[in-house]
């Protein structure tokens, strides 16, 4: 077995690999760019090597720098994680030339499967079901449009060397192909150094289901069940689960056997994933094979009890698989949510900055529920615009799908992040969505269920009463603390007005709040048939805690708490609301206060996220039509096309290609 390995990656996957290596008694070497000097994976590793400037093309993607780091530290093997160099055939070849072991598949398998065009040809030869499409190299937008016309719309334009949703566009008409082709090629070039794309038929109402395979260097290959990854946004996975609510045992076996046949056909000898697009009728077609560890591998680990990173290391060291296909059993259900640095209320635009607060739920394995958090950040750390926006992967496992979803919802509510925008409110709302809970999924789920974007859950019904009661209880605890600080000792009678008015948006609740046998009793004086109803709340929350954890009428509740003048910003089950807490007299004055209106920004194009200007598509004085492209801004490896919201004339342009802009920076003004 290896004594020292180097991880040619960063972030949560580097930290995750280090954990397994440490358990196996293997020393680890981290590599880092200048932007990652203080990163968590650098702190966790036994030693670290600085390999260059922040851009990945000058650091993490430079093979020579990785090899040099191995030589300096005596690393015998390299684990590439995912992304970066993980699927480049030249990387394991270069390592082998220096006598360094690649913890991943052999170069031949990467060549056959890593290239999406060649992988489809190999799949067809191995009698794996494939999607209709054109697998040759496409040279121009005109050729792409002609091919799309012949295949029939909609079509998928996809980077040959792609992955992670990068370099991928869907075109629903001839007119959409040209721009989709240009954007896919540009993203592919910047992300993978390879701008080749191909076109294939896009299956309507599809599901994304993938099979985890594991092979060794002795010809053994097995499959470890499936993962459902249909909850996607812009072709990037957001929530994954194992197993799939769609598949029955017969379909699972059929997909697994096809995946194994393909892996054997190319001599696959590591962990890898065969991805399928599936119809609602359980029909399925080969999509691609990822010759690396997948982001979503934890859900497979939790339902199989296997450590895939350990298996990869042992296979790379020449050990045969000790697991037979008959030994693979799927137990329970696992759900994974990807926590991203993005603003769900502004079209999921990327967010960068410092993690002022980062308090994930405690990892645990108790009462039949497992909570796992794979992360590469820490409180006080910075989310950079140079890399992927993922903050963490929150995973829960339980005996049933319903129990795993409930555990995920609780864990999301207990996950406190401040300083940047994040997608936890959206994920929390998703866990309560009836269609999600019913397992009626497709890759169009988010677009179909949130056609106008995510605006948060409505504050209504029983949930509104829970929010109001918690706000009143928090206010009561703060009042008790203030009285102690002011010298009003325990045991001394203090007169305090018990009546409170809690305002949630436009809705006001009149409440009576008091201590009752160690709990806080909140009685509703009016509203929604709750007049006279009393909630009992128990919690050890204290001022300054970012999460209120306790029980409301005996049911466990985790709720985000952010203080502001006269109230608290609360976040729970996808609801994010400002709760104002007043005395009755204060409430009367508050109702008379004028509402502040937002400034009109209609005559300016603002940068919606921190990013780099890729191109400006218009000139000063030019007339533009609604929907016309104005500029392209790149952030966190994704290109974002900014379009005109209405007909206008460009008055002035304030930015140029190559400029690095902050959020809300002015790009151009209109007459």
Quick overview:
Helices cover 27% and strands 33% of the residues. The protein has 671 residues and is an alpha+beta fold. Helix 5 (107-114) packs across helix 6 (116-125) and helix 7 (141-151) crosses helix 8 (174-192).
3D architecture notes:
With 671 residues, the chain is of the alpha+beta class. The protein has 17 helices and 40 strands. The protein is 27% helix and 33% strand. The chain has a 9-stranded antiparallel β-sheet. Strands 25-26-27-28-29-30-31-32 form an 8-stranded antiparallel beta barrel, surrounded by 4 helices. A 5-stranded parallel β-sheet has the order 3-2-1-4-5. The mean pLDDT is 92.
Uncertain ranges:
none
Structural class: alpha+beta
Shape: globular
Rg calc: 27 Å
The strand line-up of the biggest sheet is 14-13-10-11-12-15-23-21-20
The count of helical stretches stands at 17
Which architecture of the largest domain would the CATH scheme give at its second level?
2-Layer Sandwich
How far apart lie the N and C ends? 69 Å
CATH topology of the largest domain: D-amino Acid Aminotransferase, Chain A, domain 1
**Percent of sequence in beta strands:** 25-35%
In round numbers, the mean pLDDT is 92
Total beta strand runs: 40
Percent helix range: 25-40%
Q: What is the CATH domain class of the largest domain?
A: Alpha Beta
How many separate domains make up the residues?
Answer: 5
Largest sheet: 9 strands, antiparallel
The CATH superfamily name of the largest domain is: ATP-grasp fold, B domain
